[in-house]
Specification:
With 277 residues, this protein is α/β, with parallel strands linked by helices. Helix content is 31%, strand content 25%. It has helices at 6-45, 68-75, 88-98, 173-185, 219-228, 268-271; strands at 51-52, 58-61, 81-82, 101-109, 114-121, 124-130, 136-140, 145-147, 164-168, 192-194, 202-205, 208-211, 241-245, 253-256, 262-264. The strands form three sheets. Strands 8-7-6-9-10-11-12-13-14-15 form a ten-stranded mixed beta sheet, with no helix packed on it. It has a three-stranded mixed beta sheet with strand order 2-5-4, with helices on one face. A two-stranded antiparallel ribbon has the order 1-3. Strand 11 (202-205) and strand 12 (208-211) form a beta hairpin. The protein starts with 5 loop residues before the first helix and ends in a 6-residue tail after the last helix.
Length: 277
Amino acid sequence: MQAVSAHQLRKRRKELRQRRRIKFFQAIWRSLFMGSMTVGTFWVVNQPNWIIQKQNQIAVEGNEYLSEDAIFDLLAVDYPKLLWDFEPQAMAQTLQTSAPIAKAEVTRKLIPPSLSITVEERKPIAMATLAGTEQQGLLDQTGVWMPTDKFTLIDNKEALPKLKITGFRKEEGQTWVNIYEHINQSSVAISQMDWANPKNLVLTSPIGQVYCGNDPQQLLAQLSTLEQMQNLKEHIALEEIAYIDLLNPEQPMIQLKNNAGAIAYKNYFDTLSSLPR
């Protein structure tokens, strides 16, 4: 093994010192660069150009039933406000919990500085009065009940849903989902649902009131039977019918007014001659 000369040792020490010096200056330059970037970024974002000064810098899309002013009122923005101080997720959550909005998305835009709010509203498909109260609201397809005044752009009766429900209970939301699915697919036009008595759902159809009981599993069969009964008015005056009993959809009964009794639908042709006229 050859001995290292004193000259070689001095040379190696010099090279090591140079490497350390280079690394030292590189570290300083990195620190200065990062510091200047941080200061520069802070300076840029705090310039007036990055401030939301007015409401017209916030765009709202997707709203059909809820006005822009109603959305702005819910967000309660204090102007002016730095673009970076807006919290998109928190704003979206506020809209979803305080308004008839199923989904909301808020995004910040740099050029020009602005906010974009996109909402997916809950579409009302029925007017519903809560059970035991006179409080009226609107119901969406998923069973969410909402006060009517939340829908600020519905300002006339023509814009309201045609289906009316009385006696709705919020805890029956999932049951409503199943009921509406069957009603919506049926060819029978159901105009009202009376749910005040939880033991007997009463539907209003073109041929009269229909008693369905409290078993939602039977509703599909009950509506199918009701479809077959739509020619009833050709044989019996509808004003003589108190209600149609479909508790057993396989044996529909027609309850007559004035204590005239009830007749089995399947046998009503044989009974017509004995009905009071």
